[in-house]
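Got a spare moment? Tell me how you read both lines of this record:
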Amino acid sequence: MSGAPIVTWDEAGEPRSVLWRSESGAPPPTRVVIADDRMTADTAYRLACDGTALLWRGDFQNARQLLQSMVRRADRKPLKSSATPAEAFHLHRMTQGQRARALGMLLLPLDDDYGIPLRRAPDVRQACAEAYGPGESPSVVSLRELLGLIGAHEWRKKGVEIPALEDRIHPYYGVFSPVRGEYVGLVAEAPLPSMELAFDIGTGTGVLAAVLARRGVARIVATDQDPRALMCARENLARLGLAEQVEVVQADLFPAGRAPLVVCNPPWVPARANAPIEHAVYDPDSRMLRGFVSGLVEHLEPEGEGWLILSDLAEHLGLRTRAELLALFDKAGLKVVGRIDVRPTHPRASDATDPLHVARAAEITSLWRLAAC
Protein backbone atom coordinates (compact mmCIF):
# COMPACT_ATOMS: atom_id res chain seq x y z
CA MET A 1 0.00 0.00 0.00
CA SER A 2 3.08 2.23 -0.22
CA GLY A 3 2.04 5.60 -1.62
CA ALA A 4 -1.63 4.61 -1.92
CA PRO A 5 -4.31 6.72 -0.20
CA ILE A 6 -5.36 5.40 3.19
CA VAL A 7 -8.54 5.94 5.16
CA THR A 8 -8.27 5.85 8.96
CA TRP A 9 -10.80 5.68 11.76
CA ASP A 10 -11.29 4.49 15.34
CA GLU A 11 -13.43 1.45 16.05
CA ALA A 12 -13.99 -0.39 19.32
CA GLY A 13 -11.36 1.83 20.91
CA GLU A 14 -8.68 0.94 18.37
CA PRO A 15 -7.24 2.86 15.40
CA ARG A 16 -7.86 1.25 12.00
CA SER A 17 -6.52 2.03 8.53
CA VAL A 18 -7.00 0.41 5.12
CA LEU A 19 -6.62 1.26 1.45
CA TRP A 20 -8.96 3.95 0.12
CA ARG A 21 -10.47 3.32 -3.31
CA SER A 22 -11.98 6.09 -5.43
CA GLU A 23 -12.17 6.03 -9.22
CA SER A 24 -13.56 9.58 -9.06
CA GLY A 25 -10.32 10.76 -7.47
CA ALA A 26 -12.02 11.85 -4.25
CA PRO A 27 -9.60 12.13 -1.33
CA PRO A 28 -10.10 9.82 1.64
CA PRO A 29 -12.46 11.31 4.23
CA THR A 30 -10.83 12.77 7.31
CA ARG A 31 -13.76 12.03 9.62
CA VAL A 32 -15.25 8.53 9.73
CA VAL A 33 -17.89 7.13 12.08
CA ILE A 34 -19.30 3.61 12.29
CA ALA A 35 -22.90 3.25 11.06
CA ASP A 36 -25.36 0.37 10.96
CA ASP A 37 -29.05 -0.44 10.52
CA ARG A 38 -30.05 1.80 13.41
CA MET A 39 -28.98 5.02 11.67
CA THR A 40 -31.78 7.15 10.23
CA ALA A 41 -31.61 8.75 6.79
CA ASP A 42 -31.89 12.25 8.26
CA THR A 43 -28.90 11.66 10.53
CA ALA A 44 -26.89 10.02 7.74
CA TYR A 45 -27.56 12.84 5.30
CA ARG A 46 -26.75 15.53 7.86
CA LEU A 47 -23.43 13.89 8.74
CA ALA A 48 -22.58 13.37 5.06
CA CYS A 49 -23.28 17.01 4.21
CA ASP A 50 -21.01 18.01 7.10
CA GLY A 51 -18.18 15.94 5.62
CA THR A 52 -18.40 12.95 7.97
CA ALA A 53 -18.17 9.57 6.28
CA LEU A 54 -20.24 6.60 7.46
CA LEU A 55 -18.50 3.21 7.43
CA TRP A 56 -21.32 0.70 7.21
CA ARG A 57 -21.34 -2.38 9.42
CA GLY A 58 -24.99 -3.39 8.97
CA ASP A 59 -26.98 -5.21 6.31
CA PHE A 60 -25.93 -4.49 2.70
CA GLN A 61 -29.49 -4.14 1.39
CA ASN A 62 -30.29 -1.72 4.20
CA ALA A 63 -27.29 0.35 3.14
CA ARG A 64 -28.73 0.53 -0.39
CA GLN A 65 -32.07 1.68 0.99
CA LEU A 66 -30.33 4.28 3.13
CA LEU A 67 -28.47 5.61 0.09
CA GLN A 68 -31.75 5.87 -1.84
CA SER A 69 -33.21 7.90 1.04
CA MET A 70 -30.16 10.16 1.00
CA VAL A 71 -30.60 10.64 -2.76
CA ARG A 72 -34.18 11.82 -2.23
CA ARG A 73 -32.97 14.38 0.30
CA ALA A 74 -30.17 15.55 -1.97
CA ASP A 75 -32.58 16.10 -4.86
CA ARG A 76 -35.10 18.23 -2.99
CA LYS A 77 -33.85 21.69 -4.07
CA PRO A 78 -34.59 22.62 -7.72
CA LEU A 79 -32.34 24.93 -9.71
CA LYS A 80 -33.38 28.56 -10.16
CA SER A 81 -35.51 28.91 -13.28
CA SER A 82 -34.44 32.52 -13.88
CA ALA A 83 -30.81 31.63 -14.58
CA THR A 84 -29.26 32.06 -18.03
CA PRO A 85 -28.26 28.84 -19.81
CA ALA A 86 -24.61 29.29 -18.78
CA GLU A 87 -25.58 30.12 -15.18
CA ALA A 88 -27.93 27.13 -15.09
CA PHE A 89 -25.14 24.87 -16.35
CA HIS A 90 -22.55 26.04 -13.83
CA LEU A 91 -25.09 25.91 -11.00
CA HIS A 92 -26.09 22.42 -12.09
CA ARG A 93 -22.44 21.28 -12.15
CA MET A 94 -21.80 22.79 -8.72
CA THR A 95 -24.93 21.16 -7.32
CA GLN A 96 -23.99 17.82 -8.88
CA GLY A 97 -20.52 18.05 -7.35
CA GLN A 98 -21.92 18.78 -3.90
CA ARG A 99 -24.46 16.00 -4.32
CA ALA A 100 -21.77 13.51 -5.35
CA ARG A 101 -19.58 14.42 -2.36
CA ALA A 102 -22.42 13.96 0.11
CA LEU A 103 -23.70 10.70 -1.38
CA GLY A 104 -20.15 9.38 -1.59
CA MET A 105 -19.85 9.48 2.21
CA LEU A 106 -21.63 6.17 2.75
CA LEU A 107 -18.75 3.66 2.75
CA LEU A 108 -18.46 -0.11 2.59
CA PRO A 109 -15.57 -2.40 3.58
CA LEU A 110 -13.98 -4.75 1.04
CA ASP A 111 -11.86 -7.79 1.85
CA ASP A 112 -8.56 -8.31 0.06
CA ASP A 113 -10.37 -10.33 -2.66
CA TYR A 114 -13.14 -7.67 -2.95
CA GLY A 115 -15.65 -9.69 -0.97
CA ILE A 116 -18.07 -7.56 1.08
CA PRO A 117 -18.12 -8.75 4.72
CA LEU A 118 -21.76 -7.72 5.31
CA ARG A 119 -25.06 -9.55 5.56
CA ARG A 120 -26.94 -10.06 2.25
CA ALA A 121 -24.05 -8.63 0.25
CA PRO A 122 -23.78 -9.56 -3.45
CA ASP A 123 -20.66 -11.03 -5.00
CA VAL A 124 -18.89 -8.02 -6.53
CA ARG A 125 -15.43 -9.54 -6.86
CA GLN A 126 -15.38 -9.66 -10.64
CA ALA A 127 -16.86 -6.18 -11.03
CA CYS A 128 -14.19 -4.75 -8.71
CA ALA A 129 -11.38 -6.67 -10.38
CA GLU A 130 -12.42 -5.29 -13.77
CA ALA A 131 -12.15 -1.73 -12.46
CA TYR A 132 -9.35 -1.95 -9.88
CA GLY A 133 -7.24 -4.89 -11.02
CA PRO A 134 -6.29 -7.82 -8.77
CA GLY A 135 -7.12 -7.47 -5.09
CA GLU A 136 -4.18 -6.73 -2.85
CA SER A 137 -5.44 -5.81 0.62
CA PRO A 138 -8.60 -4.84 2.53
CA SER A 139 -10.04 -1.52 1.44
CA VAL A 140 -12.94 0.88 1.78
CA VAL A 141 -15.06 2.26 -1.08
CA SER A 142 -18.16 4.42 -1.30
CA LEU A 143 -21.37 2.47 -1.85
CA ARG A 144 -22.25 4.86 -4.68
CA GLU A 145 -19.05 4.01 -6.56
CA LEU A 146 -19.52 0.31 -5.90
CA LEU A 147 -23.02 0.40 -7.39
CA GLY A 148 -21.51 2.13 -10.43
CA LEU A 149 -19.00 -0.70 -10.77
CA ILE A 150 -21.79 -3.26 -10.58
CA GLY A 151 -23.78 -1.45 -13.28
CA ALA A 152 -20.72 -1.13 -15.51
CA HIS A 153 -20.00 -4.84 -15.08
CA GLU A 154 -23.51 -5.66 -16.30
CA TRP A 155 -23.09 -3.36 -19.32
CA ARG A 156 -19.76 -5.01 -20.05
CA LYS A 157 -21.37 -8.46 -19.93
CA LYS A 158 -24.41 -7.78 -22.11
CA GLY A 159 -22.97 -4.98 -24.26
CA VAL A 160 -24.63 -2.08 -26.08
CA GLU A 161 -26.52 -2.83 -29.28
CA ILE A 162 -25.08 -0.87 -32.23
CA PRO A 163 -27.45 -0.96 -35.22
CA ALA A 164 -24.72 0.18 -37.62
CA LEU A 165 -22.71 -2.91 -36.68
CA GLU A 166 -25.66 -5.28 -36.24
CA ASP A 167 -23.72 -6.35 -33.19
CA ARG A 168 -22.80 -5.24 -29.69
CA ILE A 169 -20.00 -3.18 -28.17
CA HIS A 170 -18.95 -4.07 -24.61
CA PRO A 171 -17.73 -0.99 -22.69
CA TYR A 172 -15.30 -1.19 -19.80
CA TYR A 173 -15.87 0.72 -16.59
CA GLY A 174 -14.64 4.28 -17.10
CA VAL A 175 -14.74 4.08 -20.92
CA PHE A 176 -17.47 6.16 -22.58
CA SER A 177 -20.33 3.87 -23.55
CA PRO A 178 -21.84 4.41 -27.05
CA VAL A 179 -25.39 4.56 -25.74
CA ARG A 180 -26.04 7.73 -27.75
CA GLY A 181 -26.28 6.04 -31.11
CA GLU A 182 -26.89 9.12 -33.23
CA TYR A 183 -23.19 9.97 -33.52
CA VAL A 184 -22.38 6.40 -34.52
CA GLY A 185 -25.07 6.58 -37.18
CA LEU A 186 -23.47 9.69 -38.68
CA VAL A 187 -20.17 7.84 -39.20
CA ALA A 188 -22.08 4.93 -40.72
CA GLU A 189 -23.80 7.21 -43.27
CA ALA A 190 -21.26 9.86 -44.33
CA PRO A 191 -19.70 9.39 -47.80
CA LEU A 192 -16.23 7.85 -47.47
CA PRO A 193 -13.42 9.78 -49.19
CA SER A 194 -11.26 6.64 -49.34
CA MET A 195 -11.45 2.93 -48.63
CA GLU A 196 -7.73 2.53 -47.98
CA LEU A 197 -6.87 4.01 -44.58
CA ALA A 198 -8.49 5.92 -41.72
CA PHE A 199 -7.39 7.24 -38.34
CA ASP A 200 -9.84 7.08 -35.42
CA ILE A 201 -8.68 9.61 -32.82
CA GLY A 202 -9.70 8.88 -29.21
CA THR A 203 -11.25 5.54 -30.05
CA GLY A 204 -12.64 4.68 -26.58
CA THR A 205 -14.56 1.42 -26.98
CA GLY A 206 -13.43 1.18 -30.61
CA VAL A 207 -16.98 1.61 -31.92
CA LEU A 208 -16.21 4.12 -34.68
CA ALA A 209 -13.18 2.14 -35.86
CA ALA A 210 -15.41 -0.92 -36.01
CA VAL A 211 -18.04 0.94 -38.05
CA LEU A 212 -15.40 2.11 -40.54
CA ALA A 213 -14.01 -1.40 -40.81
CA ARG A 214 -17.47 -2.87 -41.41
CA ARG A 215 -17.99 -0.24 -44.13
CA GLY A 216 -14.99 -1.67 -45.92
CA VAL A 217 -12.10 0.63 -45.02
CA ALA A 218 -9.10 -1.63 -45.49
CA ARG A 219 -7.00 -0.39 -42.58
CA ILE A 220 -7.76 1.74 -39.55
CA VAL A 221 -5.36 3.05 -36.92
CA ALA A 222 -7.28 3.78 -33.70
CA THR A 223 -5.63 5.84 -30.96
CA ASP A 224 -6.28 6.56 -27.30
CA GLN A 225 -4.10 7.52 -24.35
CA ASP A 226 -6.11 5.75 -21.64
CA PRO A 227 -4.84 2.19 -20.97
CA ARG A 228 -8.32 1.03 -20.01
CA ALA A 229 -9.77 2.32 -23.29
CA LEU A 230 -6.99 0.66 -25.27
CA MET A 231 -7.74 -2.72 -23.69
CA CYS A 232 -11.47 -2.19 -24.19
CA ALA A 233 -11.08 -1.31 -27.88
CA ARG A 234 -8.78 -4.24 -28.57
CA GLU A 235 -11.17 -6.68 -26.92
CA ASN A 236 -14.20 -5.33 -28.80
CA LEU A 237 -12.43 -5.39 -32.16
CA ALA A 238 -11.19 -8.92 -31.55
CA ARG A 239 -14.69 -10.05 -30.61
CA LEU A 240 -16.03 -8.51 -33.84
CA GLY A 241 -13.34 -10.23 -35.91
CA LEU A 242 -11.71 -6.92 -36.86
CA ALA A 243 -8.40 -7.13 -35.01
CA GLU A 244 -6.41 -7.65 -38.24
CA GLN A 245 -8.10 -4.68 -39.89
CA VAL A 246 -7.78 -2.22 -36.99
CA GLU A 247 -4.53 -1.39 -35.20
CA VAL A 248 -5.03 0.11 -31.73
CA VAL A 249 -2.12 2.28 -30.58
CA GLN A 250 -1.47 4.47 -27.56
CA ALA A 251 -1.13 8.11 -28.58
CA ASP A 252 -2.21 11.57 -27.48
CA LEU A 253 -4.41 12.37 -30.49
CA PHE A 254 -2.72 11.49 -33.81
CA PRO A 255 -0.60 8.49 -34.80
CA ALA A 256 2.39 8.97 -37.07
CA GLY A 257 1.78 9.66 -40.73
CA ARG A 258 -1.15 10.83 -42.82
CA ALA A 259 -4.47 9.33 -43.84
CA PRO A 260 -7.20 10.17 -46.35
CA LEU A 261 -9.75 10.03 -43.54
CA VAL A 262 -9.25 11.15 -39.92
CA VAL A 263 -12.20 10.81 -37.54
CA CYS A 264 -12.61 12.29 -34.06
CA ASN A 265 -15.45 12.46 -31.56
CA PRO A 266 -14.01 14.69 -28.81
CA PRO A 267 -15.70 15.63 -25.52
CA TRP A 268 -18.51 18.00 -26.35
CA VAL A 269 -18.64 20.31 -23.32
CA PRO A 270 -15.77 22.75 -22.58
CA ALA A 271 -15.87 22.55 -18.80
CA ARG A 272 -13.92 20.99 -15.96
CA ALA A 273 -14.71 17.37 -15.19
CA ASN A 274 -15.72 16.70 -11.59
CA ALA A 275 -14.03 13.29 -11.78
CA PRO A 276 -11.68 11.42 -14.14
CA ILE A 277 -14.55 9.26 -15.33
CA GLU A 278 -16.19 12.39 -16.84
CA HIS A 279 -13.30 13.22 -19.18
CA ALA A 280 -15.15 11.70 -22.14
CA VAL A 281 -17.84 14.38 -21.77
CA TYR A 282 -16.10 17.42 -20.26
CA ASP A 283 -12.91 18.93 -21.69
CA PRO A 284 -11.56 22.17 -20.12
CA ASP A 285 -10.93 24.84 -22.76
CA SER A 286 -11.83 22.27 -25.45
CA ARG A 287 -8.29 20.86 -25.33
CA MET A 288 -9.01 17.77 -27.45
CA LEU A 289 -11.18 19.66 -29.93
CA ARG A 290 -8.51 22.32 -30.40
CA GLY A 291 -5.75 19.73 -30.63
CA PHE A 292 -7.59 17.77 -33.30
CA VAL A 293 -8.50 20.79 -35.39
CA SER A 294 -5.07 22.44 -35.15
CA GLY A 295 -3.20 19.23 -36.04
CA LEU A 296 -5.54 17.87 -38.68
CA VAL A 297 -4.00 19.40 -41.81
CA GLU A 298 -0.58 17.88 -41.19
CA HIS A 299 -2.14 14.43 -40.79
CA LEU A 300 -4.40 14.55 -43.87
CA GLU A 301 -3.38 13.24 -47.25
CA PRO A 302 -4.13 15.51 -50.25
CA GLU A 303 -7.88 15.57 -50.94
CA GLY A 304 -8.41 13.88 -47.57
CA GLU A 305 -11.18 14.65 -45.08
CA GLY A 306 -11.34 15.08 -41.34
CA TRP A 307 -14.62 14.08 -39.73
CA LEU A 308 -15.36 15.99 -36.54
CA ILE A 309 -18.37 14.62 -34.66
CA LEU A 310 -19.58 17.34 -32.31
CA SER A 311 -22.76 18.28 -30.50
CA ASP A 312 -23.76 21.95 -30.35
CA LEU A 313 -24.93 21.57 -26.73
CA ALA A 314 -22.09 23.86 -25.61
CA GLU A 315 -23.47 26.59 -27.87
CA HIS A 316 -26.94 26.33 -26.34
CA LEU A 317 -25.37 26.46 -22.88
CA GLY A 318 -23.44 29.63 -23.73
CA LEU A 319 -20.07 27.90 -23.30
CA ARG A 320 -18.91 28.19 -26.91
CA THR A 321 -20.27 30.04 -29.95
CA ARG A 322 -20.60 28.80 -33.51
CA ALA A 323 -18.38 31.70 -34.57
CA GLU A 324 -15.62 30.46 -32.24
CA LEU A 325 -15.83 26.97 -33.74
CA LEU A 326 -15.66 28.27 -37.30
CA ALA A 327 -12.73 30.50 -36.33
CA LEU A 328 -10.89 27.39 -35.08
CA PHE A 329 -11.36 25.82 -38.50
CA ASP A 330 -10.19 28.94 -40.31
CA LYS A 331 -7.11 29.38 -38.13
CA ALA A 332 -6.12 25.77 -38.74
CA GLY A 333 -6.36 26.16 -42.52
CA LEU A 334 -9.51 24.07 -42.84
CA LYS A 335 -12.67 24.48 -44.87
CA VAL A 336 -16.06 22.84 -44.40
CA VAL A 337 -16.91 20.63 -47.38
CA GLY A 338 -20.07 19.21 -45.88
CA ARG A 339 -22.05 18.63 -42.72
CA ILE A 340 -24.57 16.02 -41.64
CA ASP A 341 -26.87 16.79 -38.71
CA VAL A 342 -29.03 14.65 -36.46
CA ARG A 343 -31.17 15.35 -33.43
CA PRO A 344 -30.49 13.28 -30.28
CA THR A 345 -33.01 10.65 -29.28
CA HIS A 346 -31.74 9.98 -25.74
CA PRO A 347 -34.28 10.39 -22.88
CA ARG A 348 -32.80 13.64 -21.53
CA ALA A 349 -33.62 15.43 -24.78
CA SER A 350 -37.33 15.21 -23.91
CA ASP A 351 -37.14 15.36 -20.10
CA ALA A 352 -38.76 18.66 -19.11
CA THR A 353 -37.62 18.21 -15.49
CA ASP A 354 -33.94 18.26 -16.49
CA PRO A 355 -32.34 21.53 -15.29
CA LEU A 356 -30.72 21.89 -18.74
CA HIS A 357 -33.83 20.89 -20.70
CA VAL A 358 -33.98 24.00 -22.91
CA ALA A 359 -30.45 23.44 -24.16
CA ARG A 360 -30.85 19.68 -24.53
CA ALA A 361 -34.12 20.05 -26.46
CA ALA A 362 -32.37 22.29 -29.01
CA GLU A 363 -29.24 20.15 -29.31
CA ILE A 364 -28.03 18.93 -32.71
CA THR A 365 -25.14 16.54 -33.26
CA SER A 366 -23.14 17.15 -36.44
CA LEU A 367 -20.51 15.39 -38.50
CA TRP A 368 -18.37 18.17 -39.93
CA ARG A 369 -16.50 17.17 -43.09
CA LEU A 370 -13.30 19.22 -43.06
CA ALA A 371 -10.55 19.53 -45.67
CA ALA A 372 -7.40 21.57 -46.08
CA CYS A 373 -7.95 24.95 -47.74
